[in-house]
Amino acid sequence: MPIQIVDADIQHLKHASRIGRVRAKDIQQIIKAIQELGPGKAKALVPERGETVVKLRTKLSYAARAAGVKLRVVKEENRILFALKGGRRGVAVKSGAADRKRLVQQKALQLGKGARRSLTAEDVLKAFDADGVSLGMARPATMVGAILRSMPEFKRTGKNTFTYHGKATAE
Question: Where are the alpha helices (DSSP H) in 39-151?
């Protein structure tokens, strides 16, 4: 049976959900368990007949990558314990630059439209921290500042200080 191979857009591949590509039932079960985790919660994988702790850890790592989260994983005797990385901080957002930008824009608009018209990158990061979200990158304040500078709703009024002015263009 011949196959057909055609050109495809690389952006579709980069942004396609990994979860939909996972077919093994045990991996889907682990992904579901990962998605049920919250701050301060942990779960454990216990090997059944024919499984080893090493195989379970490999499956857990694969499932975490597919789910797009970072986990703290610990081997304890004959089981694998796992929780969301960051402990009390909660979910570490592992996503592409476009997803992070969208999250930052939404949070900045939420803060800007609120009682606080003037804010800094640190204010946005503190709001994420209060929600239990970590952007999972080395210099998040630099990234947040760059996003705020590019948003027409905000005007830079000082070093790392931005004021919300609403929509720049009428819709």
Answer: 53-67, 97-113, 121-130, 140-150
